[in-house]
Structures are given as structure tokens and as C-alpha cells.
Specification:
heterodimer, A: about 450 residues, alpha/beta, D-Maltodextrin-Binding Protein, domain 2, two-stranded antiparallel sheet, globular, B: about 300 residues, mainly alpha, MetI-like fold
Chain lengths: ~450, ~300
């Protein structure tokens, strides 16, 4: 009896095991047959939000299923680093900026794109690589040598969105209180102080800038001013030199401007809170990414539409204007198992036609010359009687460059640097003390 | 009798594998918990960097020595304690106070009790974001708008190191006080009536009864609330991450936030794990001590 039961149970167990193996096999073969499916990890951005609208069209045309995961920026980079560091092949394409490009390329997580660009069987003939702004393609190349080699080596990503930094200012307030639009950082300080006042019962603050403890606080207006003063983050031997006399001088002036002409609680401002504050008329000046003009000039969203002027970043003591820049790009996972399909999608998403179609959805500034000069783009971005386009064009062609030294330390160094700015703002340290201490810590980080 | 037992045994032969089968899920869960923990502790002795996972080297106590020598660690350590002890004390006092008010039945008490648990039903990260809007530094913030009505200048709640930690405590108290209230309410409603009646007959005052009867009888609840809230607030992450990210100027940089910066933002997994291991040691020590106290309180 017992033997009979035993026999039955072992047969049952064997049957269950076989069924399980069969299911597993089916699942695996299903995965294999799913080669016509690619996965995209994307952060919330006008480019991604606009490209998502056109995905059904791509799927219909090519038969390739495109699965996407869209996350807000902070969560996005956490998810991305987890995926890439575990060498997961799940996501084939993702978005990044240059600090991440340097970190991930050095770690071997990015697929070099030059072989694909040069392969006519994979790249459509009308996908013109020379149409991209050469400055932006240069931002996407690096030879993996710490401290040098920007614009050299492999092409690691394709640019889809560019920003440079301007001072947005409220023309109406400047006119009303007879303040001259600033041409130097000292004048920015004076104007900020003069315009921090109650206007028609509402408190206005003269000058706004990001302030949270993050490298992204350093990157826009502050690094623009820092570079204009001739200061640098690292020297040729990757020694942190943010505490140079020029660095201390401009940092002191910049933080003084924020303390005396900025909003209370500056260290709590992210870019979107600052943007909202300017949008709702609480700042007289806002030093940030120029493409935010799309929101400021939209009467449906903005209380200040038509009242905004665009100033190039002020010149430094040597009379030279320098601006920082940022490029969002699409890159391919080196561990991806569907690289050809991923590349085909990449050429579609970065084609002239597609980039042009993202412009009405606020994907500004375009990274292709043909799109930037297209009459539809000209019409869509002709804000403040062409002032926006004039400044954006000058920035892109003359003044805007990546002001960070290419290395894998940008985010670490930038976070520590931002903490130093907050210490100066709080008054717990002078600019000299805070920057010297930050430089020491950064040098320690780099030496490990 | 013996014959009956023998027959039963024959019909239902003892299944020797049954105990193993029953403990198997627990064993799997144990591996699921212990494996990442042991791996995490192992990483504290290595130079593990997220961007260079192929080059993990054993570095002995270097990470520990380096971190224990840094001022940032001790600042984060003290701040974690200040935050945790402040929220636990406030939540205990507030929780007990409100529970005492709500223990008696009066019209609307049930509705009031239902409203009280609303903050607990909202995910903490959502509550924190909601408070971020309330505490915006200019008159865009709800609280500053209200203060403006009574002529008080806007306060940079989250943007000033003098007020940032207080704001964190305020948010935590708002979210978690209902938990303390519910536990105390349940405790108060299950207290025996006889000692109170006897004390009343002897002419004891309300304050005397509270000190000599309510507090001692509620001790298990007090320890329970302290245990849960202390462990939770030592590990606080979501509220700070969503509002200040450790700023301004490190005013809200707790051990957990510092470990996030080290491990996820700066990729230094080895160092990040040291912060987490220290945090685990703290939680473990406190939970052991408090659970022993709880058992003693129950036995009294």
C-alpha cells in the first residue's frame, strides 16, 4: 500500500517537474522570439514625453515593440545605475547627460556608436550625422582619460536636447524701477538688491538660482559665472582648484547676490521650484536653462508671458562671456542583446523628421542644425522679438561649452561643492574656508 | 489501548519530512534576509565601487577608520540621535495626550478617530512632498501665507539650517503621531476598571490616578510605541530625501541619507555600507534593549 502511494507521489512529482521544465522552456523560447522588442529607460523630459506620442507609429511601421519605463530624474538615475552596474541587458537604450556619460563609458557600460554610424546596412542614408551641431557631437565623445580628451575617442551617445544658460529678466520690473539690465556680475548683484521689494503688495526677489545640495546646483548659472572669472574645477593633474583666488572671489559675489537679493531658503530650491517662482512672478531674474523660455512664454502656464527678456551671461573681468552647457543624449547599453534593433530605433528617434516633430512639445533646443533653422522652429521659438533665438544661437556657437573637466568625479565633486556653497550662504564659513575645505575633500575623493 | 495506537500509527505513518517541509519557507526567508546582510557587511571591508564592480578588493578596516575619523560621520550620527529622540518624545507625549482625550465617549468621537488615521494612510513620501509645498520659503508656501496674515515675515522652513531639522520633526510627528494615538487608545480602553474605582473611593485625584495607575499600567504600550518609533526614526529616509536631501549645509544629513549619498550618488558602496552597518547596530541594540523592557513590563 505504502509502496503504491510512494510510487504515485514520485510520479506526480516527476510530472510536476516536467510541466515546470516545459513552462520554463516555453518562456525561454518566447523570450527568444521576442527579439523584435526593445526596452527603453527614460527620464521625464520634453523629449521623452514627445517621442512617446509617436511610438505606436514606429511600432506599426517596423513591427518592433517598444517598451518604456519613464521615471522622474532622481529615481531615473538610481534605477539606471542599478541596472547598468548589475550588467543587466534588459534596457537597450537610455538617456543621460555628460557626467553620466563619462562615468558609464569609463565603466564599460556604453556601446560605442561609431561602428553603427558607419554601417550603411543599419543606418538610413538620409540620417545625416553631419547635421548635428558639431559642438554637441563633441560633447558626446570622450577618450576615457581622466582630465582630458573631451571631443576625442568614441561617440558614446547621440544628442537629443541642448541647453545653455541665460539670465531671464522681467523687463517690466526693470523699466518700472529704472534698473539697467546687468552686463557684469557686480551689476547683477546691484540689480538683485534693488529689485528685492514689495511690488503691488507682492514680495519680489531680485535673483533666483538653484540651491539644493547637488552637483546640478553648481552646473547652470554658478559654473557659468565661475568659468567667466577664469576659475576651474580641476587642473591638468586632476587636482581640485575650486579654491583659487578667482574661484573664491566670484563665489563670494555670487552667494552675496543670493543672500541679499535672493529668496529666503535658497538652499531648498531645485530648478523646477525656481522656474515655478519665476513663472508666478516672484523673481525679477532667474539664471537657468534657456529652453525654459517655452514655459515662460506660454500664456496658458505663465503670468509673465511677453514680459521676459533674455540676457547673455555677464562677461567676466577679462570681458569674455562664458557659459556652461548641458546636453541630453540617448545611449546604448553595452550589455544589450538587441543592439541592431536598438540602433534602428535610435536613428529613428534622432532623425531630422522626429526631432522636428518634438519641437512643438517643448523639446527645445534642437540638436540638429536643420531643425533649429527650420521655419517651423523659428516661428515656435521667436520669443521676445527674436531675442531668445539670438542669445541661444550666440551661446551655442560662441560661448557655451562643457565647463567641467571630463572625469568620472563630476557628481561626487559637485555634490561636495554645492554643500560648500550652502555653508557660505548659511554664514557658517567664509567663501575661502568653505571652498578650501571642499577642495581638500574632493582631492581625497579623487585620490582613492 | 496500545493496540489502538498501533493501528492509528499504521493508518497514518509518521511523516518524517513534515517538520522540514514546514520550516522550509522560514529557511528560505532566512536566506533571503541573511544573504544580502552578510554580503553588505562583507562590502564594508572592500573598496567596492558601483562603476567598477569587477575590481573589488579587500581593504580591511580602512573604510571604518576613514569614516570614524571624519567629522561628517559624527555630525550625521548626532543628528540621527537628535531627530530620533525628539520625534519619539513628542509622539509619545502627543499620542498619550490625544488618546486620553479620545478615550471617553462623546458625540463625534468615532469620526474624530477615523480622521486621525488619515496621515498614516498616506505614503510618507507623499506626505513629505505635501509638506514641502506647505513649507515653501516664500509666500508661495501655505504656512508662510498664513503667517503673513498675522504680519510675520516668510520663514525658510526647509532652506535654513536653523529650521530645517525642526521642519523634519514636524513632518514626522504629523505622519506618525496617529500610530502612537491608536496604540495608546487601545491600551487605555483595555485597562481594568477596578483599581480606578478603588482609588476613587479612597478619594484619589485624577493626577494621582494618572501617575500611579494609568502610566504604570500603560508601560507595555509606552515601550511598544517607543520601540517601533525609535527604530523607524533612526532609519528615517523618505521624509528627508523628498524635502531637503540632507541640506541645507548638512542640517538634515542623517546616517541613512549619508549612506545614500556615498553608495548611490557617489558609487562608493563599501563606504555606504559602513554607514548602514552602524545604523543597523544602533537599531539592533535599541530593539534588543526595548524588547527586553517590554517583556518585563508585560510580566509585572
Amino acid at each position: 500500500m505504502t509502496n503504491w502511494k510512494c510510487c504515485i507521489s514520485s510520479r506526480l512529482a516527476a510530472a510536476i517537474l516536467c510541466a515546470f521544465c516545459l513552462l520554463l522552456f516555453c518562456q525561454c523560447s518566447k523570450n527568444d522570439s521576442k527579439s523584435a522588442e526593445i526596452h527603453l529607460l527614460l527620464n521625464r523630459h520634453p523629449f521623452t514625453e514627445s517621442i512617446l506620442r509617436f511610438l505606436p507609429e514606429y511600432e506599426r511601421k517596423t513591427g518592433v515593440k517598444v517598451r518604456t519605463l519613464l521615471l522622474s530624474e532622481e529615481e531615473y538615475f538610481e534605477k539606471l545605475i542599478t541596472e547598468l552596474s548589475s550588467r543587466s541587458s534588459f534596457y537597450d537604450l537610455f538617456m543621460l547627460g555628460f557626467p553620466h556619460l563619462w562615468q558609464y563609458a569609463k565603466a564599460g557600460w556604453l556601446e560605442p556608436l561609431d561602428p553603427y554610424v558607419e554601417n550603411p546596412s543599419l543606418t538610413p542614408a538620409n540620417w545625416d550625422p553631419h547635421d548635428f551641431f558639431p559642438e554637441l557631437i563633441a560633447c558626446s565623445r570622450w577618450n576615457l582619460k581622466q582630465g582630458t580628451g573631451l571631443g576625442e575617442g568614441h561617440l558614446w551617445a547621440l544628442p537629443v536636447n541642448e541647453e545653455a544658460y541665460v539670465i531671464f529678466y522681467r523687463k517690466d520690473l526693470f523699466e518700472r524701477f529704472h534698473v539697467k539690465p546687468p552686463a557684469t556680475y557686480e551689476e547683477v548683484y546691484q540689480a538683485a538688491k534693488a529689485l528685492t521689494r514689495k511690488v503691488d503688495g507682492q514680495q519680489i526677489y531680485g535673483f533666483g538660482h538653484r540651491g539644493v545640495r547637488s552637483w546640478s546646483t553648481i552646473h547652470p548659472g554658478y559654473l557659468t559665472a565661475f568659468a567667466s572669472w577664469g576659475a576651474r574645477d580641476f587642473d591638468e593633474s586632476m587636482h581640485c582648484v575650486i579654491d583659487s583666488p578667482q574661484g573664491i572671489e566670484i563665489t563670494d559675489l555670487f552667494i552675496r547676490t543670493l543672500k541679499q537679493g535672493g529668496p529666503p531658503g535658497w538652499p531648498s530650491y531645485t530648478w523646477y521650484e525656481g522656474k515655478e517662482a519665476f513663472l508666478s512672478g516672484r523673481f525679477a531674474m532667474w539664471f537657468d536653462a534657456n529652453h525654459q523660455a517655452a514655459a515662460f512664454e506660454n500664456p496658458a502656464k505663465s503670468q509673465i508671458a511677453g514680459k521676459v527678456g533674455y540676457l547673455l551671461p555677464p562677461a567676466g573681468p577679462d570681458g569674455q562671456i562664458r557659459s556652461s552647457t548641458w546636453v541630453w543624449s540617448l545611449a546604448m547599453n553595452a550589455a544589450s542583446r538587441k543592439k541592431d534593433a536598438a540602433w534602428r530605433f535610435l536613428t529613428w528617434a534622432t532623425s531630422k523628421e522626429m526631432l522636428q516633430r518634438t519641437v512643438p512639445h517643448e523639446n527645445i533646443n534642437p540638436t540638429r542644425r536643420s531643425v533649429w533653422n527650420d521655419p517651423k522652429t523659428v516661428e515656435a521659438t521667436n520669443w521676445a522679438q527674436g531675442e531668445y533665438r539670438r542669445t541661444a544661437q550666440l551661446l551655442l556657437s560662441k560661448y557655451a561649452r562643457i565647463r567641467w573637466t571630463p572625469s568620472t568625479y563630476v557628481t561626487q565633486a559637485g555634490d561636495r561643492w554645492a554643500a560648500a556653497l550652502q555653508e557660505i550662504y548659511e554664514g557658517s564659513r567664509t567663501a575661502e574656508q568653505a571652498l578650501k575645505s571642499a577642495a581638500e575633500d574632493i582631492n581625497q575623493m579623487v585620490s582613492k | 489501548m496500545a493496540d489502538h495506537a498501533l493501528r492509528t500509527q499504521r493508518l497514518n505513518p509518521p511523516n518524517k519530512s513534515l517538520p522540514y517541509l514546514l520550516t522550509f519557507p522560514a529557511f528560505i526567508a532566512l536566506i533571503g534576509i541573511l544573504y544580502p546582510f552578510i554580503l553588505g557587511v562583507y562590502y564594508t571591508f572592500t573598496n567596492y565601487t558601483l562603476t567598477d564592480p569587477g575590481n573589488i578588493r579587500f581593504v580591511g578596516l580602512a573604510n571604518y577608520l576613514d569614516i570614524f575619523r571624519s567629522l561628517d560621520f559624527w555630525k550625521a550620527f548626532c543628528l540621527t540621535f537628535v531627530f530620533a529622540s525628539s520625534v519619539v518624545i513628542i509622539e509619545l507625549v502627543l499620542g498619550l495626550g490625544v488618546a486620553l482625550l479620545l478615550k471617553d465617549t462623546f458625540p463625534g468621537v468615532r469620526i474624530l478617530q477615523s480622521f486621525l488615521i488619515i496621515p498614516m494612510m498616506i505614503p510618507p513620501i507623499v506626505s513629505a512632498l505635501m509638506w514641502k509645498v506647505i513649507l515653501l520659503p516664500t509666500d508661495q508656501g501655505v504656512l508662510n501665507r498664513i503667517l503673513d496674515l498675522v504680519g510675520i515675515e516668510p520663514i525658510a522652513w526647509l532652506g535654513d539650517s536653523a529650521t530645517a531639522l525642526v521642519s523634519m520633526i514636524l513632518i514626522d510627528v504629523w505622519i506618525y503621531s496617529p500610530f502612537a494615538i491608536l496604540i495608546f487608545l487601545a491600551g487605555l480602553q483595555s485597562l481594568p476598571k477596578e483599581p480606578y474605582e478603588a482609588a476613587r473611593v479612597d478619594g484619589a485625584s485624577g493626577w494621582f490616578m494618572f501617575r500611579k495607575l494609568t502610566l504604570p499600567l500603560l508601560l507595555p504600550c509606552i515601550v511598544l510605541v517607543t520601540l517601533f518609533r525609535l527604530i523607524d526614526s533612526l532609519k528615517v529616509f523618505d521624509i528627508i530625501y523628498a524635502t531637503t536631501k540632507g541640506g541645507p549645509a548638512g542640517a538634515t544629513m542623517t546616517l541613512h541619507i549619508q549612506s545614500y549619498f556615498e553608495a548611490i550618488r557617489w558609487f562608493r558602496m563599501g563606504r555606504g555600507m559602513v554607514y548602514l552597518f552602524v545604523l543597523w547596530l544602533l537599531c539592533f541594540t535599541f530593539s534588543k534593549a526595548l524588547s527586553r523592557l517590554w517583556t518585563k513590563a508585560l510580566m509585572r
